[in-house]
Amino acid sequence: FNSQIDDWKKETSIFGKQLLGKENICLLIEDTNGNLFGCYVEKIIDKIATFIEDENSFVFSLRSNGRFEKNT
């Protein structure tokens, strides 16, 4: 899914609909600042635009693009 090509408007985006019925999802997101992060959801996604109770889900950061100081 590319938000610059695909429809990303809240009212018309198909992104959420494409996740419905899926489980064990890993999303990777790279923003325009070069940050790379994502999340993992184990449970079946049965609704969109709402909180999903999943004790095994988590978020992560792979590249923070300088937001954290590096230890020398």
Topology:
Blueprint: H1 15-19, E1 25-30, E2 36-41, E3 58-63
Antiparallel strand pairs: 1-2, 2-3
Description:
It is a single chain. The chain is mainly beta and 72 residues long. 7% of the residues lie in helices and 25% in strands. It has one helix and three strands. The chain has one helix at residues 15-19; strands spanning 25-30, 36-41, 58-63. The protein has a three-stranded antiparallel beta sheet, with no helix packed on it. The termini are far apart.
Give the strand line-up of the largest sheet. Answer: 1-2-3
Query: Which band does the percent of strand residues land in?
Result: 25-35%
User: Which sheet architecture does the biggest sheet show?
Assistant: 3 strands, antiparallel
Cα-to-Cα separation, first versus last residue: 37 Å
| Strand segment tally | 3
Whole-number radius of gyration?
A: 15 Å
Class by alpha and beta content: mainly beta
Characteristics of this structure?
about 70 residues, mainly beta, three-stranded antiparallel sheet, 1 helix
